Every structure is written in structure tokens, then in C-alpha cells.
Request: fold
Amino acid sequence: MTDSSNNKPVRTRFAPSPTGYVHIGNARTELFNFLFTRHYKGVHVLRVEDTDQSRLVEGAVENMLKVLKTLGIEFDEGAILNDAGHIEERGEFGPYTQSARLDIYKDYIQKLLNNKSAYYCFCTQERLDELRKEQIALKQPAMYDRHCRNLSAEEVASKQDEFKAAGKSPVVRFAIPLEGETVVTDLVFGEMKYQNAVLDDQVLIKSDGFPTYHFAVVVDDHLMEISHVIRGEEWIPSTPKHVLIYKAFGWEAPQFAHMPLILNPDKSKLSKRQGDVAVEDFLKKGYLPEALINFMAFLGWNPKTEQEIFSEQELIEHFDLEKVNKSGAVLDTVKLDWMNSEYIKAKSNAELVELAKPYWQAAGVDTEKFSSAYLEAIVELEKARLKKLADLPELTKYFFNTTGLQIDPEILVWKKSNAKDTHQNLLLLQDLFRITDDDVMNSPEKLEVIVKGFIAEHELDNGSVLWPLRYALTGEEKSPGPFEVTATIFLGLGREEVMNRLQQAISVL
Ligand code: GLU
Reply:
């Protein structure tokens, strides 16, 4: 399918540099790329941009693709993850890893050298550093002064020999047109004009023979027939250079769409601290993939309706670049918590138990020792308030503790009661629970009727009975209500455990 603004079939790409974890900003941009592609039934390509060999991290591509796959983002072509979890090339435009395409870049740089759109630069690092210092001192923009741009053919040949003898290679720079302006048309940011005179003669091939990002991205996007370049706002300043490189080749540039920055709530630039921004860490904390997708979709996009909860399929249906905002999107984790809790509430108890098991196990709970019915009853009690799965072990720890809770006598006594009455009330509750039928003990509603009847009969007040009951069973000042807690512990751990917990509380008074 083609999109309305361009008659080419939609082909997009995610072009990560394999330098480590998946930053939420990159994941959001990639999500928009993916939603756009699926919306137009296009082809989504994965290209590995590993031209900066000093920044490579072993296994980074696999890791990134696994995280994206968990979120439901997959690729049709390129260096993609196979079922065994390894990278495999698929498609006719390969190789899709830039370090395996060096011969291609060699051919293409020759074309630019031949048509004088590129030139060799022999300047030493010392000269460039010196130049930079001078420009900064004069408050001029730091850029290359085009020193090597007008060398004669003889000068170039003799410098080449000199470099060869020393075992070095010159870099190749782009010859930016000296006059005129370059217009970038962006599907989100609109038209942006740049005076060519302020654009730097960018290095295209480095002295190690590798292309720079700027050169490789243009050559590859063209050869891979990419129709839409969808990437982060931070690449806007590079785009006029890319447009000029397309022109120098005589190629038509793809459509560009830059996605707005993601900001902290105080509008500062989002931190790079991995624990705060890595998608894998959000997943580890127990944010559900579908909630993260939904949340990220709203970082810079708005369906312009009231609806906030969207499945991936609905996002694909509704997503369009026209509804992407220019202004930075705030990463609001309060909203993420809310969204995640909505997705948690929508899960069945059985599904939630499966999702919760790794978290309980990591906290030392042997989940195999407890019945599914018990685990499901526990999540049922917490799911209405739960923000993320990682919070569950702490909230539910008393359900698994059969070796005695910490009971503080100060807390055990209801604020309008006293130790003596509390002692007495707990003894009475023990008597009551000793003779209450199983089907009542199992049901919070029936228990409530019985216990409230018992309170009335003994002319007690609710607080002086229900507070110590709930606290004796949980050891927590905050928990679900006394009837739910009693019925659930009875279901999973039996009458004896209910009696033991009451006994233990009695013994501290
Ligand atoms: N390799 C670049 C990055 O790391 C890709 C930028 C682009 O999409 O053009 O983000």
C-alpha cells in the first residue's frame, strides 16, 4: 500500500546502532515507525548501523530485538531475529549490517568524488583542533574551513603518496554547495530552510575506511528503497546534509518525519540513566508490554478523541503521522502507572498469577507450595489497586508467611480501645472461628454477616474487633478488608493458620 503523501510503496526502517539497551525514546520512535508501516501495510526493515566500531556492544542487536519483540514490534526484512533468538538476514537488499557493506560505500563514494561532490581531506587532527579553538575564541560556528577542497589534482596526488608511505588514509568530505539554501520538508515539522553556507563539509568516509553515519544512511536508505525515514527529532540538523547528498547523487530523497523529543516532567531532556529509561527495566518492574505500548503511543501522538486505552491493533488502525505533535512529550510515570493498572485489572486472575509468579519467586516465595485457587484469590484482592507486578510480593507477603508475623502490640490495639478489651475480643473471635462452617469461612460476604452479628450480640464496636482481626492476620497497617483477608487465608492456609495468627496476636498483649 502507498501512503497519501507519496506514491512509493511504504518501506520504513529501524536503524539502531548496537550500543546497548533500548532507550524508551528510541522505542517510542520505533513504535511510531512500526505503527505507520503496519497502518499502510508496508515493509519494515531492520538495518544495523555499526559504523562506529568503538561503540559496539556484544549481543546488543539480539537484546534490542528481543525487547522489541516482547512489546509486539517485529520486522519483515533485514537483520532480524529468527525463532531460535539469533540474528538472520532476510530480504533482497542485504547485507543489512553496515560493516558488511563497505565495498558498496567504496563504489558510491567514488561517484561523488568523480562528480566533485566530495573531496579528500588530508588535514591532521592537530590542525582541526587548532581551527576549532580559534573559531570558538572568535565566537564563530565550529566547522571545517574547507582547506583541502580546492587542492589541485597534483597536490592531491602528492598528499596521497605521502599518506600511503606513512600507512595512513585521508578522510573524504562532502562538498556542500557554497551558495543557496536547502529546504527540508518534514511530515511533522513542516518546511525548514537552511542556508548552505552554514552547513559543514561533513566527513563521509573516515580514515579507517568506514563510512560515517551521514553517508551510510543516505546510501542505504536509497538502495533499500526506503520511502519514509521516521526518526527522532535529534536528527533534524543532519537532514539538510542528507538532502544535499541525495541531490549530489541525483536521487530522490525519501519523506522525512521526525518524532518529538521525550522530556522529564520538569521539561528537561530525558536522562540517559539506564534504570530510568531502559525499556527492559520498565518490563522488569512489571509494566505489561501492552501497557507500555499504549503509553508510548501517547508520547507525542494523540488520536484526538477521548479514548486512552488502545490495543496494538487499534493503534495500527488509528495511527497517522499527521496526529504527531511537534512539541516535546513528557514522560509521565503517574500516567504509566494508571495505564498499567488498567491493563492489570483487565487480566483474568489466572493470567495474573502466571505473570506474578516470577516476582513472587524472586522474593523467595515457593509458589508451587500453594494452590492456584489461593494464588488467584490473592491477586483478586490486590488487582484493583495494583500499579505494577513488582509491587505484588511486598503487598502480599503475609499470605505466604507461615512462620509467624511481626505483631506490634501498640498497633494491634485499636486507637479507641485498650489492650485488655483487645485481648478479650481476639479470644472471642477465636471461639467464633472455631465453630464457623467452612462455607462461611470461605466467603467474605457470609463472614461479614456472622462477625457483625457477633459484634452486635456482644455489644462491641466494629473498630475494636475488626482492626485487631485484620492486623493479627496481616501484620500490616494497610491491607484489604478483614473479611476478605480471613476468607483468603482460610482458603489457602486453613483454619489452623487463622487460629494461629489470632493466638500469636493474643500472646503479645
Ligand atoms: N543509527 C542512528 C541511531 O542510532 C539512526 C538514525 C536514523 O534513523 O537515521 O539512531
Remarks:
- The chain is about 45% helix and 10% strand.
- The two ends are 75 Å apart (CA to CA).
